[in-house]
Design brief:
Elements: H1 5-11, H2 19-42, H3 47-63, H4 68-81, H5 89-99, H6 103-124, H7 131-215, H8 222-250, H9 272-281, E1 286-291, H10 299-319, E2 325-331, E3 335-342, H11 359-369, E4 373-378, E5 384-391, H12 397-401, H13 416-427, H14 434-445, H15 447-480, E6 484-485, H16 487-492, H17 499-505, E7 529-535, E8 543-552, E9 555-565
Parallel strand pairs: 1-2, 6-7
Antiparallel strand pairs: 2-3, 3-5, 4-5, 7-8, 8-9
């Protein structure tokens, strides 16, 4: 069955080889090879087995990054028959725990390696009996040499990945905070541009109208008329410059929503009478009437009413000089109506009229954002009429669209944390405590925290390893009595005695100390089964004194005493 690309990708490690990784793997393989050769020497391994162990260690170490699952299973199986390659299980477990993606895949890989190690250990030592002890010993060794490094590597890798994700998230939040602050500045720039257009434009229009009227006054002398003309030209130039500056400030910026903040009385409905009086003092025929019972408005609507009256008067000054103007405030049941109407111009105005073309557009946008509307059009008799309908207490349209949030639609807090908390509350979730995230990041960068984690894992691995060593020592001590006998007992046994009688007087020989000793001495009788034991008083370190008893047809047919290399 062909292996799919997806299946091959999860078997491979995610990172390619580099020179640094290759050098580190070769150094690790060299250390493991030296230790493995020492283990093979203690186990009396042949040259061929030493060569096979060396090759297995090098190949498995180099492939553990690319094939973590395969090397883990193969290394667990090879370590049973090649003692020199047994220690490679530690880096294989570490690499598999870090690089295998998914808990299910990791569990399957480690389970397969465990089954391979235990089953092959039982099959190898089946002739010695005691399969339960072999299973227990193999399990403890697998836990200490493979599982513990795998768990430690997986925890370390997940923690490192989490910290990296948190750091990236923190950097993203900082970027978003800077973006929000920039948007707040752009919105404030737009608000300033709107106020400059409404306020300064109105004042400059008044100056231009008044100086234009003075310029044609027959009472003035030529010199005075020339000075007034200079003033009018200066006001016209100022209006040109104001229009250019406002255009620059508005470039690429959406119109802001009104900010729910307290406005001075001069910038609300109460200030309309002030601009009417200013127009009267300049000689313009302006009448102000009020109908209905005055009612308070929210700050945004109050400010919008003032801007509607101011902009309509400015347009009347510029486009209909000398015409009579009526300003009417009608307090109806559900809204305030601000209506400004002027008649036809009494005479053509002197000079050019400077207009940015944004006045009525800005008024309509202001009224829309507070839930109202503005009408502008020609009136009967050749005049012009501007009427604004503004609600008393309705929330801004932007807030209504956002689910009735109490904050104004155009309110932008210059703080990312405030905006995020408001966003989370609208969605029904609790705001995240980013201060705790920052503290966690700082703890993740702490060397002491990493050292404490490493020490904890090392202590746990050491405890498991001590348990394994203790179990091995207990097993070894318990098997000594089944593998040794004295020379006097050996001399007391006679060839020709029945097998049952001889075996009843001898130890069982079921011990790791006697493994393979019956095949290292003189040739065995054909068809005989032999039992090899070790002399209990042997003091030689390089050789072992062996007593061998061979049985055939229910009788002892041969006994031999010889020495073999330890």
């Amino acid at each position: 069955m062909a292996v799919t690309r997806a299946g091959w990708d999860w078997l491979k490690g995610p990172e390619p080889w580099t020179r640094r990784m290759l050098a580190g793997d070769l150094a690790l393989a060299g250390v493991l090879v030296v230790l493995g050769l020492g283990v093979e020497e203690l186990d009396n391994g042949s040259a061929a087995r030493m060569l096979a162990s060396t090759a297995a260690v090098v190949v498995l170490t180099l492939l553990r990054r690319r094939l973590p699952v395969v090397t883990l299973v193969v290394g667990s199986a090879v370590g049973v028959y090649l003692p020199g390659a047994f220690l490679v299980a530690i880096p294989l477990g570490w690499s598999a725990g870090r690089r295998i993606v998914g808990v299910g895949r990791a569990l399957g890989a480690f389970t397969g390696a465990f089954v391979a190690a235990v089953v092959l250990s039982v099959l190898k030592d089946w002739t010695q009996g005691r399969p339960v002890l072999i299973v227990v010993f193999s399990t403890l060794m697998f836990l200490a040499m493979v599982v513990m490094p795998g768990l430690a590597s997986r925890y370390w890798s997940q923690r490192r990945t989490l910290l990296r994700a948190l750091q990236e998230r923190n950097a993203q939040l900082m970027r978003e905070r800077a973006m929000v602050a920039g948007q707040a500045r752009l919105r404030e720039r737009q608000r300033i541009a709107q106020d400059m257009h409404d306020s300064l434009g109105h004042q400059l229009a008044l100056i231009s109208v008044h100086t234009g009227a003075l310029e044609v006054d027959p009472v003035l002398t030529d010199r005075q008329r020339e000075a007034v003309g200079v003033l009018r030209q200066a006001s016209v130039a100022a209006m040109h410059e104001l229009r250019e500056v406002v255009g620059i400030l508005r470039d690429g910026v959406e119109a802001p929503a009104p900010v729910e903040e307290a406005q001075p009385a001069a910038r609300g409905v109460a200030g309309i009478s002030g601009i009417v009086e200013a127009a009267r003092s300049a000689g313009t025929d302006v009448r102000l009437t009020t109908a209905g019972t005055p009612r308070p408005l929210v700050a945004a609507c109050d400010h919008a009413a003032y801007r509607i009256a101011q902009e309509a008067l400015t347009n009347a000054y510029k486009h209909a000089p000398g015409a009579s103007i009526t300003v009417e405030l009608r307090y109806e049941d559900d809204s305030l109506v601000v209506e400004i109407a002027n008649g036809p111009a009494a005479a053509p105005g002197p000079g050019e009229v400077v207009s940015g073309g944004q006045g009525l557009t800005g008024l309509r946008e202001r009224a829309r954002l507070v839930g109202g509307m503005v009408y502008a059009g020609a009136a009967e008799g050749g005049g012009f009429r501007v009427a604004g309908v503004l609600p008393y207490g309705t929330e801004p349209a932007g807030a209504q669209e956002n689910g009735g949030d109490s904050a104004g639609a155009g309110e932008v807090a210059d703080d990312f944390g405030q905006q995020l908390r408001a966003h989370m509350l609208v969605r029904g979730g609790a705001p995240m405590d980013w201060a705790s995230v920052d503290r966690e990041l700082m703890r993740g960068r702490s060397r002491f925290g990493g050292a404490a984690l490493g020490c904890g894992i090392a202590v746990a691995a050491l405890v498991v390893l001590l348990i394994v060593i203790g179990a091995a020592v207990a097993l070894f001590v318990g098997s000594v009595g089944d593998a040794t006998m004295s020379r006097a007992d050996y001399e007391a046994v006679r060839v020709g005695e029945s097998e049952s009688a001889v075996r009843s007087r001898l130890p069982s020989g079921d011990s790791i100390l006697t493994q393979g000793l019956d095949r290292k001495g003189p040739p065995r009788p054909e068809g005989a089964t032999c039992l090899a034991l070790v002399e209990d008083e042997d003091t030689e370190l390089t050789t072992t004194s062996v007593f061998r008893f061979c049985f055939k047809d229910g009788k002892l047919v041969e006994k031999q005493a010889y020495r073999t290399k330890s």
